[in-house]
Every structure is written in C-alpha cells, then in structure tokens.
Amino acid sequence: MKNKLSLAFFAFAIIALSAFTINKAVVRYEVDASKSSITWVGKKLTGSHNGTIALKSGNLLLDSKKLVGGSFVIDMTTIKDADGSKRLEGHLNSDDFFGTTKFPTSTFAIVKVYGSGADLKIMGDLTIKGIKNSITFPATVALNKDGSVSALAGKIMVDRSKYDVRYGSKSFFNDIGDKAIDDMFEIGVNLVATK
C-alpha cells in the first residue's frame, strides 16, 4: 500500500511539474487597441459598404515564439461606415443587424493554430449576438525588433446568417430579389501586442 501511494505521489509530481514547465514557457502579449485595427466589407448585388470597428481588448499567447492561443473582445457599438453614413451606422447597430444595445460586444477565442510562418491557419470560436460558431482563416504572426508581436489576417470570411443577422438575407427571405445582401462579409484584422 505504501509503495502504491509513493508511486501515485511520484506520478502526480511529474505531471504537476510538466504542467508548470509548459505554462511557464507561454508568454502573454496584450493587444494595444490604439495600434490595432479591424476593417469590414459587406456586399450586395448593387454595390458594397466598408468601414471599421474597434477592438476593446485582447491578448495573444506565444510559446517558444509560436502563436498558441489568444482571445479578443470587439466593441460592436463602434461600427463605422467609411463613407460616414450615420444612417447606415444606425442600421448596422439596430436589431436588423447586430443589435448592439443588447449585444454590445462580440468575442473571438483561438482554439487551435495550424502550420507556421507564412502558412499559418487559425481556428477559433467567434461569438456574435450571443451565438458561437467555429471559423478558420489564414494569418501571419511576426515578432518585431521592439519586442512587440504583429498579427495580420487580411481576409476572414464570416457567414452572418449563422449569427441570426437576417436583414436582406436570402437565407431567411426568398423574395427580396436584387435587394439581397450577401450573407458572407469580410473582416480584416491587424493587431499589435506587447508583453
């Protein structure tokens, strides 16, 4: 019995030490929202709109200089139209689109990172309007000379119909004809993070 307890304690100690060593290697970088940007593009049959949205907070986790995780909070109330249309901005904030009074933030959490260097793919959970779906997209991550980290994902495609964003969607309304708005919208992310 004494040998079994000693063996169990020894196994536990090795596991605990391994976990401590692994966690110690992971370095957390906080995203600098003032140096980071998020852009969006929405398309319809008769044209498109584009603009920006602000990042509220976020972090990147690196292990041996490789991205292994991270999470982000997006301030949905900051949706801006590049043409400065207050009407469009108001509509995007309304319940027809993102319902920012009820859902003022969206989140993204990295679940897995594939590949390395320029051939990086990030899989994560995007939550909009309280609905979570998995998305995967290409990205690049670089360590800068000043010790900061840059992360760029130029084309993240999101299917808004999966987040109950219904306005002008053929997924919900069959008879809207040329007034249809594409279900897919594009997000571009440029992050700068520091220790």
Number of contiguous helices = 2
Order of helices and strands: HEEEEHEEEEE
> How would you classify the helix and strand content by structural class?
alpha+beta
- Give the fraction of residues assigned to helices: 10-25%
Q: Tell me the overall shape.
A: elongated
- Strand portion, in percent? over 45%
Determine the mean pLDDT.
Answer: 88
Total E-strand runs: 9
**Compute the gyration radius: what is it?**
21 Å
In the predicted model, the low-confidence regions spanning at least 5 consecutive residues are: none
* Main pleated-sheet profile: 9 strands, antiparallel
Measure the end-to-end span: 48 Å
Give the SSE map.
Layout: H1 2-25, E1 26-31, E2 37-44, E3 47-63, E4 66-81, H2 86-93, E5 105-116, E6 119-128, E7 131-143, E8 149-159, E9 181-194
Antiparallel strand pairs: 1-3, 1-9, 2-3, 2-9, 3-4, 4-5, 5-6, 6-7, 7-8, 8-9
